[in-house]
User: Fold this.
Amino acid sequence: MQEIHLNTIQDFNDYQGLKTLHPLVSVVHVDSTEHIKECVMHYGLYALYLKENKGCKLSYGRTEYDFDEMTITSFAPGQVVNVEPNPEAPFAKFTALVFHPDLLNRTSLGKQMSRYEFFDYTSNEALHLSVQEVEIFKGVLSMIEQELLHAIDKHTRELVVSHIELLLNYCLRFYDRQFITREEINHSVVKKFLSLLDEYIAEKAEHNGLPTVAYFADKCCLSTGYFGTLVKTETGRTAKDLINDRIISKAKELLQSDTLSVSQVSQRIGFEYPQHFVRFFKALTGKTPTQWRSA
Assistant:
């Protein structure tokens, strides 16, 4: 299988057979008549693709993207993506924005990239756009493209970065809308999460340690980032907060038994060291386990 390394904008443009207008950013339109070939792509760039047909299947490891026409898929430096041909639509058709991390050096956007958690959504959830959202996305891309066609001057970088930030902020809005409109799916995921959480604390914590958000995200076939956003949207609280609530609830239940020491309770709910349990319990309840037990 072919291994493709996209570490520079020139790498990306050479792969697509395009002219490089700027060394750190590119807007591309692909309507290929060539069959897509199976490959593994190693990203050293940020990339946002507006997929306009079912041109290929994308997956991270064993998880495939929930992927259809007019969806956005996003990748960040360090990610590795498997690309497979799709017999239903063997030709690629997409519009993409690709930019190098160096473009963001010493910019406010560079300091805020962690806000855009969708770059870490390595799950089976792509961003599905409405017709109006597609128009907005393409409109902002057009502004970036026009700037790239302009001769590079002292304003180019600031304007391009500003447009990229605008586009990323729109994507945040679109994702928020998607989480809301998928309320039924979100509800079932949260229900499964809470059920698995109760089962874990009751049956697995003593031997496997404290439950983590990543564990339940994997059980729900979602990335940790997407799972966390979904839970927060559905419940108004973070997945970590819900885990802590259940741990405290179980701890209080066990502390009611006079036959168990604080150390034994600590072990039952997954703490490796009793002193860590005491600090955790006091931080969330305002009392130590011993104080709570004697109240």
Q: What stands out?
A: The first strand starts at residue 2 and ends at 6. The chain has twelve helices and ten strands. The mean pLDDT is 88.
